[in-house]
Design goal:
The protein has 173 residues and is an all-alpha fold. It contains six helices and no strands. It folds into two domains: 86 residues, no CATH class; 87 residues, no CATH class. It is flat and about 60 Å long. Pfam families: TctB (PF07331).
């Protein structure tokens, strides 16, 4: 059995199991006695449900990908192991190092720059780090910028208006 082919499916099942366990454990969180309060159990439930949904999406997409690869005959000369060996360590770890550096820069810039600007910039740069080379054209850059700006504004509005949590405004104050 080639584990590399089933890696996403296995990870999806593990995360789905963890999400179900987390959801069940979240019922042990004491409920708030304040009338009209969303309660301190809301966020654990939300995290469990979202991670469960993402796990189901990963399971479905990996299952469909497996069905497609099983339908196509593979070339005997190339395998996943041969392809992985061809990639140098620098090429494989560069996105990881870039993501870690970007996270530290985001944390550092969050207070002085503000949530909306720092988050939009972080998301745009993270999209570029994570995107394959063929998805870095002008059209993709526009989509990344638009998605970053809309997501940062939506998240800020969600926290400020629904949770009454003030996020750093920074330069926009």
């Amino acid at each position: 059995m080639n584990v590399h082919r089933y890696r996403d499916l296995i990870v999806g099942v593990i995360f789905l199991t963890g999400s179900i366990g987390y959801y069940l454990l979240s019922f042990q969180t004491p409920k708030s006695e304040i009338p009209g309060d969303i309660g301190n159990y809301f966020i654990p439930h939300l995290i469990a449900l979202v991670s469960g949904l993402l796990s189901l999406m990963l399971i479905a997409s990996s299952y469909l990908a497996l069905r497609q690869t099983e339908a196509k005959p593979q070339k005997p000369a190339e395998s996943d192991a041969d392809t992985a060996k061809e990639l140098s360590a620098k090429t494989r770890y560069l996105p990881v190092v870039g993501t870690v550096a970007l996270l530290f820069a985001y944390i550092y810039a969050l207070e002085p720059v503000g949530f909306i600007l720092a988050s939009a910039t972080y998301l745009f740069l993270q999209f570029n780090i994570s995107a394959p080379a063929d998805r870095r054209d002008a059209k993709a850059q526009f989509r990344y910028a638009l998605t970053s700006i809309v997501a940062a504004i939506a998240i800020n509005s969600f926290f400020v208006n629904i949770f009454d949590v003030m996020l750093p405004q920074g330069l926009l104050d």
